[in-house]
Amino acid sequence: MYKILDLVFICTTLILASYLLWQFWPSKINWFGQENQSEEQSIKYAFIDKMTGLHSNNAADLGPKAVAVMIDNHPDAYPLSGLNEAKIVYEALVEGGMTRFMAIFSSAQVVAKVGPVRSARPDYFDWAAEYGMPLYFHCGGSPEALKALKIERDLVDVNEFYNGQYFWRESLRIAPHNLYISSSLWQEASLKYKPAERSWLSFLFGKNNTTTVAENFEIKYAVNFTVGWKYDKVAGVYERHFNNEKFLGDNGEVITAQTVIVVKNKVDILDEIGRRAIYNIGFGDAFIFADGKVTTGTWKKSKAEFRTRFYDEAGSELGIPPGKIWFMSVPKENEVKIF
Predict the structure, then answer these.
(1) What pTM, to 2 d.p., does this model score?
(2) pLDDT reported for residue 149
(3) In CATH, what number does 212-338 get?
């Protein structure tokens, strides 16, 4: 009888001691907390966004269907809508010494307002084709662009001239700077056009070792048209400036990007209006800005639908640091001023 009681007492003591040890031992958090934290992280970041290289909890980001929207950049169109929501923004020179944007979204995104939407230019088609078979939203275009769109097989042409139901105009703004689109409208257009499934390759995401400090830089496209970027160390983003003023969206927030790619292209003037031809198939100098630093190298692109790639002096491919990407085309003779 006493032996049984002794055994019960010993077992009870061991159980109590184990509980007290678990309750007060300093490394308790390490035993259980790290496992729970890892499990939480694996659930929260189950995917990688193919467009940005960022962690995502949305399965649609694994193979997103792209939407490309031409966006006005005339000062009369400011403030603009939807640029901060875009996954990638392409910026290139058009007539008048100004630039125009092509914003790339995932069709699955929810975006209330994007624009003002402006006309097509053929130079952007080769960049858009890097995303499979995107819906390409625009309002009219240059003669060269409209001619090319009739035979273009790498884009789904959604021109407001013939598809007004997928756009709206705001009466409080003056045309042509008053045309907009939203994600609900581009999703309706997708149901109508049913763009073909076409595989496409993403950037090679990753950070580079060969970097130098570059917290501020600017590019002067023309007189009174200078684009600058300033690195915000706290937020970890570059803030966009236009003529030394912060470039704000329609919600009053500054337009930002985590990674800014600058490529130098040969640019010809086509006509008396000043329309440009940008040679974005070939190769040239490249700058990759991220984390307040820059990596220099060479861009290469051999076919319209092939991804623009970046290489160092030894010929090894450079990485694109993950994040919201801003891709700037600059005439090869223009300076990229880093300070």
Answers:
(1) 0.86
(2) 95
(3) 3.50.90.10
